[in-house]
Design goal:
Blueprint lengths: L1 H7 L1 H8 L3 H10 L5 H9 L3 H14 L1 H15 L146 H9 L20 H10 L49 H18 L12 H5 L17 H10 L20 H9 L16 H10 L3 H13 L4 E5 L8 E2 L8 E4 L11 E4 L7 E6 L7 H9 L28 E6 L14 E9 L4 H10 L2 E6 L4 H8 L7 E7 L5 H15 L6 E4 L5 H17 L7 H10 L3 E2 L4 H14 L5 H8 L5 H15 L8 H21 L4 H12 L2 H37 L3 H12 L5 H20 L13 H10 L4 E5 L7 H14 L6 E8 L5 H9 L13 E8 L2 H7 L3 E7 L5 H4 L4 H15 L2 E7 L3 H20 L5 E7 L6 H4 L1 H21 L8 H4 L8 E4 L14 H21 L8 H16 L10 H38 L7 H31 L12 H32 L1 H27 L6 H18 L10 H12 L5 H9 L28 H31 L6 H20 L6 H29 L2 H20 L5 H34 L10 H15 L2 H9 L1 H20 L1 H22 L1 H4 L4 H11 L8 H8 L6 H25 L2 H7 L4 H10 ...
Parallel strand pairs: 2-11, 5-7, 5-8, 8-9, 9-10, 13-15, 13-16, 16-17, 17-18
Antiparallel strand pairs: 1-2, 1-6, 3-4, 6-7, 12-14, 14-15, 19-20
Length: 1890
Amino acid sequence: MAFETIRRGRERLIALLLTTPDPVLDEVASLGIVTEEEYEALEKLSEPRERIRRLLIKIQRKGERGCEQFLECLQSLFPDFPPDLQPPGRRYVTQTNDAENPEGGTSSEKNGQENLEAAVPSGKNELENPERAVLHGVNDLGYPDGRPSSGDFDPMNPEDAMCSEKNDPEKPEAPEKPEAVPSLQKGPVTPNSATSPMKNGPENPETALPSKNDPESPGGARSSETDAAAESSERADFEESGNIPSCGEEGKTAAIKGNFEDGATPDSDVSMSESRAETPGAARSVKRCRAETPGHSASVDRSGDEATETSPNKVHGGRRGALKTVLSKLRLKKFRNGKLRLGDLLEISLESLKDWTPHVLGDLPRHFLRKLMALNGTARSTRLGQGTSDEDTSEDEEGGVSGDVFSLREDDSRASLHPLDVLCAVLLCSDSFLQQEILSKMSMCQFALPLLLPALDTSKCTLMLWAMRDIVRKWRPHSLADSRGFREESLVLTSLPTISFVRMGSCSFSKSKLLNEVLSPSQQHHDFFIHRDMESGNVPREIADGLVEISWYFPGGRENSDLFPEPIAVTNLRGDIESHWLQFSFLTEISSAMFILTESINEREYALLSSLQGSATKYYFILNSQAGKAKETLGLLNKLAPLLDMKKSQLLVKEQSNNSAELVKKLRSTLRGIMSSSPKSARVCDMAVTARELGIQVDEDDGECWTALEHIEEITAEIKDVAKYKRDMLRLQGDLWKNLAKVEKELCRMKGQQDVSPEDYRSQLRERWLELRRQQNQCDLTSGMVKFISGIGQLRPAEKHHFLKWMKFHLDHIARGNLSRLRAEYKEKCRTLGDDAQQLVELDELISASSLGVEHFMRELGQFYEAECSMVKEGNMGNIQRQFVHLPGIAADLMLEGFPMELIDGDASNIPLQWVTDVLTELHAKLGGRSRMLVLTVLGVQSTGKSTLLNTMFGLQFAVSSGRCTRGAFMSLIKVAENFQQELGCDFILVIDTEGLKAPELARLEDSYEHDNELATLVIGLSDITIVNMAMENATEMKDVLQIVVHAFLRMEEIGHKPNCQFVHQNVSDVSAHEQNMRDRKHLLEQLNEMTKAAARMEKQSREMKFSDIMDYDPEKHSWYIPGLWHGVPPMAPVNMGYSESMCELKKYLFEFMKNQSPRRAPKDIPQFIEWVTSLWNAVKHENFIFSFRNSLVAEAYTQLSVKYAEWEWEFRKEMHLWMSKTETTIQNQSPDDLGPGTFEKLRLEVHQMLHSGEQKMLQRLQSYFESGAGSLHLVEKYREDFHRSVTFLRHELESYLLCKSEEAIRIQKGRSKIDHLQAGYTKTIEGKVDGLLRDCREREKGLKPKELEREFAKMWKETLAELPLEHLPLRQIHEDVYYQLCKDLENRGSLVKQMLHKAQNLLTYQSKPFRMKKEYLDLGWYKAAMEFITQQCKHELEEFTKSLVEECRRCIGQKVHSQGDYDQTYCRELLWMINERLQEKIAGKMCTSASFEVDLKLHILGEAASTFQKMHEDFLKKNDPQRRLEELRPQYFSTFRDLYYEKDACQKRAFDFCDRCLRPALWEYMKKRLGIEIVDNFLSSGESIEYGSRSFFQFTVQKKLLEEMDFNNYVKYVSNYEVFVKSWIQTRLFDHYRETGGLKELERVVLATIMKKIRDTLESCECQDTPTVSEFLDHFCQAMCKELVISKDSLEVILFKNTANVGQFSVDIQTFLSQVEDGILSEWEELSGEMVFTQLQFKPQDEIFKRVFGCGKQCPFCNVPCEAGGSDHKEHFASVHRPQGLGRYRDETSKKLIYSLCSSDVVSSVVFRNLHTAFQWHPYKDYRQFYPTWRIQPDPSISASDYWKFIFRKFNHQFAKEYNAEPADLPIEWKKITKEQALQSIREAFNME
């Protein structure tokens, strides 16, 4: 008992079913074992075990029969089902292999009865509605449903089981006939409306059930393994792939069920069983009985048993189960309601890098869609990949084992699904837009398209009208062949004759294969329709029955090769017409002719066809003649002929003796005959009317689609003439926009300037630009624009998407109509007008203006938005009045939804920068700031398939049709999957499609080459990867394109941007192309090198360059040879498989390349991309791109690099300064005898080692920084060499400084040797006298009182000094030595100079006289007519030069004095060398001066130096006077003498004296040396360090502060004496900083505490403590501190005199007094004011910080703005902002008015200049680099860039004029409108401080 079996084996069953709970539940529901309500209730349970437990309880409650059915179901699902759980007495049912039964005979009962109609019992024995028959009819949802259910035919019951038997081939069995013939009334016509009686009986073989449904997709058994595998993984995600465990062989229930369900036909080649039938000869016959009551299910007589009724619930459950099973297999269940979207498909994931082969059924949808999007002809294949190949050698091994050499493989069709099932499932789970894309791609591949989708999840079929809307085809009918015209139209709007092909009954040859042969030329066969001989075409269909496909034939205008002269549509119904009468009815209504394929006709079928009487459609029969039935068939056809008005030609017979070629020939001839008889034509869009009348739903009939259409029709109803509509309705983008574009470019290029001054001309242009914007802003929204904004702004997202699609379709249709008419008119006028070209030109322009698309409406929105923004910026409109502020957000939404957005307006050749910026900013915000993206662009000649290439690679929707080529550039966003973003290094890929280069319509323009250069420069500049698309047909055009590309790459190399380049050579199909073209690639590289050299010359690059210098190009990796797009000759050519596969390879390589590059280069985010667009476009608008490119990202990267370099430089300098401080201290601590000849060489070697180490460390840091991948570093790669040189320069600078300082220290110390030697002798003498006096006093009997002791000591001291032979250093007259050096310097300058020197007064008299300019100083003899202007300019320049040189010499003199040494002759020689060097520079700079100038200048400088050096010498003598030094020691000697006399313990006193006399002075000097270094370190690490981080930061800080103070005097100092101003500024800022923060005290405490700690550590060290005497103790101490402190030897000698103290106690006493010393020193420093502290320091912090921000010190030759370049030794000087030249003292020669033009404007104008460097000859500003090659003066990026200095000039115009002895400038009116806030904002932008 089955019930008992379940009860007994419950636990085992639960364990078994838990392995695959969902498929089990689906199967029992589809078989009707459980009801729909029970199924839904069980499905809601989340716990699998609970679900299975309750299922078993429900099964048991259904009784014994239900339990048996359940166990049978499990037996079919589980191949290893335990025998003890199987129901007793059951056996498997097998079915014959179709290969053995091609004619489709059905099985009979094993009792031998040949024609039994008992099949599926119902409660009645009459058939009311064959369409609802369980056998092979269609239920109320139009879905074939024949699954066994409770109470139906039981395949596992011995009484019901049937064995398969091969039918008699001469008696093919046809489908059973309905009882009545349907009429052709409108509405869903079905065979069950007939009343004609049907013959039935066991003897009638014609009523036998066909075993299969369709030749192309036979019904039958589902693959048991595949079903189980798919169902077990139905919860898996759509995207995942992997191996699904098989559940084994399915029971044969499915085999029988498949037959009944699909109405299998004998012309299918599908194996329907796992094993061979036991009785292959036995046939199964079925008899259909008449239904007695309408609405009852089909019933069959089963050997006299009473049939039971099939419940409607079970039928519905079966249908739902079939669809659900397929979706489960394909892993599409979750998309049944939440549909797949195109965006999901386009998303780039890890799978994009894989060669994707489906291995399980769940992979098929993804595989189909990916292949289809790539236009791959194998997209429809559903074959699954195998683990091993078919040729695997393991077969041989197996054969060897089994003994059989040959064996038959299992039919692997079980491991797949029919392609049409996959197509139907994918379409069902796709939203309407993805459906559109699918059908568009299928059309390109020349696949037949689904016209009617069968009823799947609805009760109605669906007409796929919307899905076909996007398909446009071109063709040339023979009527236009002579004129070479063509037609282009949307498929759904093209009226064509439609020919339908259907099947009645069984047919042994394939209808679809026949159609493919009919539609394919003999040399170009193509499978439009899937048929059984195609891969996977033999797999049984499960849900695709009832599908109607449609294909077309379009002629190419070639009479010899075209199959038909005019286009024709062909439809193909899948399945038998009897089962799909509704679809057949629809086809009869729309078709011009109907071809019915059959092998025989019986009475029932005759009755069915008779109902077609009166139809306007012509009916043709294609008869596959069968012996034994031909006579009856012909008889019935002859009876049918008068009813259907058929003629003899309407019967085509395929004789058995003929092959299919004869039939194809006949059929083509028949079709031509039909087309020549003016058949009725129909448009697909008109078919919707018929569909609705028949109850077929149309995919467009949803609210969202219709709502959008209503909006569109309101817009497009107004469009008649496109050009006129654009003029009237899209007014802002017409002449207004084009004029704006011209004005914007003229603002940069200044070509029309003529005699107007640059700033006046710019002001005029600015006013013109504003006026055009005002005119735009005054335009009202037209009705069309109002409706458009309403559509994209107010509709819901789905409606908006439909709205834009509808708009595209309508506008394309209108544009095609207009273009067609204009082309015809153009052709006619070419023929009639002859040489009159004017009308042709006008017509040509009209054709160019007749394109109209959504982009034109979006462009109009952009112009409204830009005009409004302009008014807001000008203050003519408040923010509250804005109407269009929401538009960028709408456009950003559209980009997110995949719509391309216009970046460059191709008509105006301009970028609406504000609009693009704000749209992208909104997009960035909507993405939550996660907008890292890589940019990919394509470049190439027009019409070479650039857009198609991008669409094929990425599935995008760039326009490739619509009668127009891409104009400008469009960008589209592709999302990167989250799990791939890290690996790819970006969140999105931005793809930019561009206008074709070398466009014919632009060729006649003079600047067409420049236009192409601009476009190429812009898109290459924006891209990370550029695809250069080259068609191989035209080598000349290819060369032109390469030249353009090379120019663009050269420009990118200059600005540090190096995108990757891929060369794509299209239309190369030879498999050996890559190998054969190796020489061509080498030749191409040679060409590229030559072009690079030529481009470098054109771009005014001096260096020799080759292509590899400007980009990393590997000819082997970066060259792609791609076959042509079409396989054959369009319009009937499908896409070339080689093209698709090559595109996939390229795409895969690009992703791999991006992946590999991601660690090295940071991608741009949207704000950075906006900055690139802005700066590139600004540079492109200037003619000289390289010198006009400015980019805040580059500026930011450069600034960060400069900041880093400044940090490294200070670390290096600090290290060297500390070393110098210690070295200097060490030298000062050494005796002159120790400073031998090798001392300096030793120091030199140490300096070299240190500097080399420091240099290498900096270079390594520089390299590491560049390799770190920090943001945008690659943009400043070209500056790496500058900083590299700066490191070397710094090393040389420090080397010179250190060696000079070391040499000077040694010289000073050696200079003291004589003094110190004499001093030592004097000290020794005095110590002897003191010692003698001490003995003498002690020997006296009477002790001396203190006063007496002091008198005795004083007497001794006086006598001793009188006795000492004190030698004083000689006082020299320094001025005499200096004069001698001067005379020696000028001795070879001639007699005139000697006379001047002879007349010169004493040098010391020059110190008090200021140097005044004299006329004779200028030598203008080389200029014949020395005008006053020239004289004044030369005089001023000479004054500035003199002032600068005098200041420099003063600094040098000050440094010498600061060393506190004696005067040396080298000092004077050094000064003279410095003066000569500067004079030589000036002469090289064309400043010609007289000899008197040089003599007077040197006298003045050296006179001042002589006076200073004299004082320095006298101070040195005074400080080192022997008597003075001895007198300084007297108090210490007396103190020691007194203590010794009174025998006091002097240890503590000596310790105190050591601290006070030795340590305190040494510590004070230490503080003076070290505090300056620490102040710089502290200051640069403080909050204010950013201001001094780079020269740009510093300039911004200074200018901002000056603007706040608005002090004219400060501006004059800043402009006229920048160096002095900067030093003063820094010093003031330092003072202010430490005064406000009080940080100086803390810094003093830290510096002192550091050295005090070292002193204490030294005192406590073992080396000092272990010494026996104080003398050795102090020697050790001094030695340990010799690098830090200079301890006075004189004072130390006094401490050691007669010092017998205990070393330990002495050390302790010293430490006792250290705190007192420390506090005393700190209090002394605190007593000094902030300014006084800085004067005490030997290392001046202000000087070091000055070096940091002053840089090279060079100033602009025109406006004197300082250079901001980083490092110390750079190739080029530049500044962010230039000033009006009047601020640099330039004035007009005649009017004396200050010049207000800016050099940054002049360098792009036609203005000329002259000055000393041009020998006062006029030269264009554009050629300024001829005279100033190291300066790069960049044009202002915007008209407001120099607002700061314009504002200052305007504010202080009169004061500057007075200061410069000139007249005030006549400033432009525009300057007077600039506010202080605008001035500040301009420098914020200029210095990138936003």
